Amino acid sequence: MSENEKLAEKTVSREDVNAYFDNRADSIYDFRDEGTDEFSVNEGLTEDIVRQISEEKHDPEWMLEFRLKSLKLYNELEMPQWGSPIDGLNMDNIVTYVRPKTKMKGSWDEVPEEIKQTFDRLGIPKAEHEFLAGVGAQYDSELVYHNLQDDVAKKGVVYSDMESALNGPYADMVKEYFMTLVPPTNHKFAALHGAVWSGGSFVYVPKGVKVDVPLQSYFRLNAKGAGQFEHTLIIVDEGADLHFIEGCSAPKWNVANLHAGCVELFVKKNARLRYSTIENWAKNMYNLNTKRAIVEEGGRMEWVSGSFGSHVSYLYPTTILKGNDSDCEYTGITFSGLGQNLDTGCRMVHIGENTSSLVTAKSLVKDGGIGTFRSSVEVKTSAKGAKASVDCDSLMLDDISRSDTIPAMDIRTADCDVGHEAKIGRISDEAVFYLMSRGISESEARAMIVSGFANPISKELPLEYAAEMNNLIKLEMEGSTS
Amino acid sequence: MSQKLLEVKDLSVDIESGRILHDVSLTINPGETHVLMGPNGTGKSTLGNALMGNPVYTVAGGKIFFDGEDITDWSADKRANAGMFMSFQNPLEVPGLSLESFIRNSIRQKTGKPIKIIQFKKQLEETMKLLDMDPSYAGRDLNVGFSGGEKKKAEILQMLMLAPKLAILDETDSGLDVDAVRTVSKGINEYMQRTEGALLIVTHNANILEALKVDHTHVMVHGRIVKEGGPEIIKQIGDKGFEQFA
Predict the structure, then answer these.
(1) Which of A433, A439, A455 sits opposite B55 (nearest CB)?
(2) Could you say which of A85, A171, A200, A329 is the most buried, measured as most Cβ atoms within 10 Å of its Cβ?
(3) Is residue A448 in some structural domain?
(4) Is B141 contained in some domain?
C-alpha cells in the first residue's frame, strides 16, 4: 500500500466515500441518458477491437498501422507506479469505443433530441450563440456537432473533427503532426490513446490570422464503464492568434470510467495560443490525460486549467520552449474533495535563448481529498538568459486532507534566473469572523475566501467560465461531509 | 429615548487562558456616543469582540440585549444583520476578494435584496471621496497591501455603507497620523448625522474624541468598569492618566 493510500484509509473510510456517492448528486453535471448509443465494441483491449474501431472510423491505411503499433507498445509498457494509485482501473472492463446513434451535424436541430438536451443543460448552444466563434461537441466516442462561424471560416481557419481532417484537404498536415509531440512511446496511456483514439478536434489557424473569439470543444462521456480517447491537434501558424476552450464532464457511475485524451499544440513563430480547460469529470473517472505544446521563436503559449472532477487524475501539461524568446504561462487550480486523488502539475522545457516560463498554481483540498502538485522546470545548456518562476499555493479546508508540492528542477546553464515558491495555509478563523461581522454567513464567508484564493485563475477565464468555476467551487464547498 | 439599543448585563468573558472580563454592565441608547477607555491590555477589545460575537471569546456569565432581543448566543452574522458593526483594530486581508464586492455582498446579506448597481456605485464613490480614499481601492483585494491608515478608512467606509444602528470602533485611531485621524473623525461625524447611529468608541487615547460629541464615558481597568460619567472624564484621564482609577 502506498503512503497516499494509507493516509486515505486512515482518514476517510471506504464506507464514507460510498455513502457520500450514494447520497448526493456530484453536481449539476450528474445526469445520465439512456439508449443514446448505437454501436459499441466489447469490453477490453485486443487487436480485433482495435481493427474494429479502425474500420468503423474509415481510417486511412497508415492510421490502422499506427493503431496496431501503439497497441503493441501498450502491451509492452509498464503501468505508471509513481503517482496516485490506479489499481481500480481494469482495462478488461473498459469499453473503448461507443458510437452515439447519430452522424455529426452542423445544426443543433438535427442532433437527436436527448443528446441535444444534454448539451442544452450544459449550456453549450447558448454559449455558442453568445460568445464563441465555433463549437465542437463530442458525445462518448464521436463528435455529434461541429460548427464554425462563416466569417472565421472565410479567413481560412479550419476547425473540424479529427476524422474529417484525416480524410479531407488537411490529411497530409494531420499525418505530419499526429502524435509526433506525444508519441505512443511516451507512456502506457499515450500508447493506449494511439491504439483506440476517437473523436477530438483539429484546428489550423493560417499565418497572421487572429481569431478574436474563442473556439470551444466539449467532451461528454455518457456511457457506463466506457473510455474516452479524444485527440486534439491544434496548429497556430506564424503570427496567428487563438483562444481554445476545452470543457469536459460526465455523469457518475458505480464502475470505473477512463479518460485518456491527448492534446498536441503547435505554436509557430510569433504566434499565440491560449488553451483553457474546465474539467469536471464524475468522481468515478480515471483522468489520465496528456497535453503538450511546442513553441517556436517569439511564440507564446498560455495554459489556464481548472481541475475539479475525477477520482484519480494524472495531468501535467508540458511546454517545450524551442524557439528563442518564446514564453509560456501556466495558471491552474485543482480542487480535491472526498475520494479524489488529483495528481497534477506542469512541465516547462527551456531550449531556446531568452525563453521564459511562469507557473501560478493553486490547490484546494477538503474532506480527505489528496492534491499533489508536481512541477518540473528543465533549462537546457542552449537556453541562455532563460527565466523560470514557479509559485504554488495550497489551501487546506480541514485537517484530514492532504496537499503536497513536489518541485523538480534540472538546470544546465548558469545564465538563467529560476525561482520557486510554495505555500500551504488554512482558512483563518479570524478572517471568517471578520466577514461574518459584516452579516455574511459562516459558510458564505468560507466560500468567499476560497473563491478569492481561486481568483487569480478565474480572472484568466472568460467571464462565463469564471462564473461556472465559482459555481463549481461553491458546489464543492456545499458538498461538505463535516 | 425610550428603548435601550444595547444593554450589557453582568457580562463575564473567558478566553482559553482564563477570565478577561468581570461582570461588565453598560447601556447604550439609540444615537448616543459612548467611549470606553482604559490602559492597554485591560480587556477593552475583548468587550468589543464579545459584543460582536467573536467565537474566540466565551461568555461565561451575563447577557447581551440588542434592540430588545437577547443576542448572547447569536452568531456574528446575525448580530450584524440586526444592526451591529465593529471596526476592527487589525482588519484582516482577504486576497482575491475586492473591497467593493465585499461591501456589496454585505449589503445584500443585510437587505436580502439584489443591489441596484448604479446607485451602489455612486454611493460608494461619494463615500470614498469623503474619506479621501483613492477610488482605485474599491477594486483592490480587501486590505491586501493597504497601509494602516487605508485599512482604517476602509473600515469607516464599510460602516458608512452598511449604516448600522450601533458601531463599535475598536482602536480605530491607533497608529494613524494626524491627517488620517481627522479624516476618520469626519467619517464618524458623517455616520452620526446621516444615520443617527449609536457609537461605542474603544480607545486608549483621546485624539479621536476631540472632534466628537461624547455622551458617556466608561473606564475599564483589569476587566472591570471602574468609573462612569460624562465627557469630563476624558479630560481627567488626559491630565492624570488611568492610575487614579486603579
Answers:
(1) A433
(2) A200
(3) no
(4) yes
Inter-chain CB proximity B81 and A439 less than 8 Å: yes
Of A147, A156, A160, A90, the closest CA to residue A119 belongs to A147
- Domain with B192, as residue range(s), is 6-245
Query: Grid coordinates standing for A179?
Result: 502524435
Whether B1 is in a domain gets the answer no
ipTM of predicted complex: 0.96
Helix or strand or coil: residue A357? strand
* A442 belongs to a structural domain: no
pLDDT per residue as tens digits for the range A322-381: 999 999 999 999 999 999 999 999 999 999 999 999 999 999 999 999 999 999 999 999
What average pLDDT does chain A have? 89
> Is residue A276 in a domain?
yes
Whether residue A169 is contained in a domain is answered as yes
- Asked if B158 contacts B187 with a C-beta cutoff of 8 angstroms, the reply is no
Lookup: cell for A201: 478536434
The total number of structural domains in chain B stands at 1
* DSSP helix/strand/coil, A192: helix
Q: Cβ of A438 and B91 within 8 Å? A: no
Interface contact B147, partner A, CB < 8 A: no
pLDDT digits (tens, 9 = 90+) for A23-70: 444 456 777 887 778 788 888 889 999 999 999 999 999 999 999 999
Answer yes or no: do A437 and B56 touch at CB < 8 A.
Answer: no
Q: What is the CATH number of the domain that holds B239?
A: 3.40.50.300
Q: Give this prediction's pTM.
A: 0.84
Residue A420 is part of which domain span?
A: 3-430
Q: What is the mean pLDDT of residues A96-101?
A: 87
Min CA distance, A445 vs chain B (Å)? 10
Contact B102 A428 (CB under 8 A): no
For residue A102, how many other CB atoms are within 10 A of its CB? 18
For residue A442, the chain B residue with the least C-alpha distance is B77
